[in-house]
Amino acid sequence: GKSRWEGRNGEVTVEALALQRYAVRGFKGFVTPFVVIVKLISLIFGLLFWDIIFAPVPGAFETPKNSLQGLIEKRLSEIKDGNAVNIIQRVDTIHRTSETWCAG
Q1: What is the pLDDT of residues 1-41, one digit of tens each?
Q2: Using CA atoms, how far apart are residues 91 and 43, in angstroms rounded to an integer?
Q3: Which secondary structure element, helix H or strand E, spans residue 51, and what is its range?
């Protein structure tokens, strides 16, 4: 089970204890459920790889060796070089007017 800590009003989770300690210093916060974090990560992945996921590559998902490998490696390099925000902005600019959604 989860560890329990002594908070202001008895036993609390470590997340609640951290929130209490920051509140004493004047900060406000909240605990994000794990499922929200997973959806956020999925959303970011979808935006970063949108053009690759929907690339017009014949048989891309039908062959043992993925024919998208070169595109994926190039994108990972772009992300490593600090271009993630630019990639997401480009995808948004291209698809916002058509109201295409990427859901995590």
Answers
A1: 778 889 988 999 888 899 999 999 999 887 777 888 888 99
A2: 12
A3: helix 50-53
